[in-house]
């Protein structure tokens, strides 16, 4: 979509909102269009692919196992990301999982070229592998990073070194030279065209959790920072004290206007550091810290509170032209 097309869409949505001022869905569409326009004006795009909506949505009566996998994918509500440099059409796939054919099909339809993969953390719903109970009773493995690297032999995956052993254990077919540690001076940043991605260690959910900061203004946070919540620390590899330090020091020091893209869609597709400081886990009281459970309804309700702001209010939070540094 060209920038002027965003203007047309925003105008249309605003006209619709005038007729129905209380329609939250229209407000969300306006805010999302403003965000996507801002991204494009900065030379990149961030695409969110969701199981059941964009991928993992085909059903085959002759393939019941795949159908069960896709059912699980929709329950998990993961978000897979494409970071696209608009000038070159090169892109990085983040947390490729569930449906590699579907992901690659979308990339090809849009004329993009995958040049790298990145992983926020090693859990099965982000990299593939064996599913948890009750799905582990079936002889299945979830398509993920191993499948992507096999289908695209020219790319490598950027992973924090603390999580590499877990990924290799669950995916032994991945050759060691296909996983790149992000903690060296050479690999702690990745540039595709004029788009720069910086890997930020965010341990707590797993030892090697990492966030991706795109052009210093967009943060793909994985399961460390969700909208109104943070990732669980009661799973294997989780550490509550480490997570608190990550929230207070690492993410808490970021600029308020940085947009946050979460690893799961629990009611909101994006937030900002400032909003998370006001209503979420980055405030002094760490609201929402340690509250995540298996109760999806509760999680979704908490996360959806972030969708109640007006489009203009949300847009003002990430308007990069008026950025000022909150902290140094």
TrEMBL record:
Q: Where are the TPR repeats?
A: 1-23
Question: Pfam families recorded for this chain?
Answer: Lactamase_B (PF00753), TPR_19 (PF14559)
- GO MF annotation list: hydrolase activity; metal ion binding
Composition bias (Low complexity) maps to 306-317
Report keywords, A-Z. Answer: Hydrolase, Metal-binding, TPR repeat, Zinc
Q: Which SUPFAM superfamilies match?
A: Metallo-hydrolase/oxidoreductase (SSF56281), TPR-like (SSF48452)
Residue ranges of the Metallo-beta-lactamase domain?
Answer: 77-264
Biased composition of type Basic residues is found at 318-328
Q: Does the keyword Glycosyltransferase apply?
A: no
Q: Which cofactor does it need?
A: Zn(2+)
Domain of life from the UniProt record? Eukaryota
Does the UniProt entry include the keyword Metal-binding? yes
Residues annotated as region Disordered? 299-328
Name of protein: Beta-lactamase-like protein
């Amino acid at each position: 979509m060209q920038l002027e097309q965003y203007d047309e869409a925003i105008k249309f949505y605003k006209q619709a909102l005038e007729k129905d001022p209380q329609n939250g869905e229209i407000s969300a569409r306006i805010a999302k269009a403003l965000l996507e326009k801002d991204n494009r004006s900065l030379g990149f795009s961030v695409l969110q692919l969701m199981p059941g909506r964009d991928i993992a949505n085909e059903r085959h009566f002759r393939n019941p196992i795949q159908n069960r996998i896709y059912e699980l994918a929709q329950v998990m509500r993961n978000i897979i990301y494409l970071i696209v440099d608009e000038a070159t059409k090169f892109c990085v796939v983040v947390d490729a999982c569930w449906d590699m054919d579907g992901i690659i099909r979308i990339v090809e339809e849009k004329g993009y070229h995958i040049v790298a993969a990145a992983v926020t953390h090693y859990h099965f719903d982000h990299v593939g592998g064996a599913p948890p109970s009750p799905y582990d009773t079936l002889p299945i493995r979830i398509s993920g990073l191993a499948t992507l690297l096999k289908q695209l032999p020219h790319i490598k995956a950027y992973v924090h070194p603390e999580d590499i052993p877990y990924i290799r254990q669950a995916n032994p077919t991945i050759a060691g030279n296909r996983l790149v540690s992000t903690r060296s001076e050479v690999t702690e940043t990745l540039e595709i065209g004029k788009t720069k991605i910086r890997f930020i260690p965010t341990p707590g959910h797993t030892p090697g959790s990492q966030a991706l900061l795109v052009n210093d203004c967009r943060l793909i946070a994985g399961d460390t920072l969700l909208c109104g919540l943070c990732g669980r620390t009661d799973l294997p590899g989780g550490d509550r004290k480490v997570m608190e330090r990550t929230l207070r020091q690492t993410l808490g020091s970021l600029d308020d206007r940085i947009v946050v893209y979460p690893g799961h869609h629990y009611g909101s597709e994006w937030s900002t550091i400032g909003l998370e400081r006001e209503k979420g886990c980055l405030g002094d009281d760490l609201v929402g810290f340690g509250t995540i459970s298996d109760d999806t309804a509760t999680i979704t309700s908490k996360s959806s509170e972030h969708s109640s702001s007006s489009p203009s209010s949300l847009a003002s939070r990430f308007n990069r032209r008026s950025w000022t540094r909150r902290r140094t």
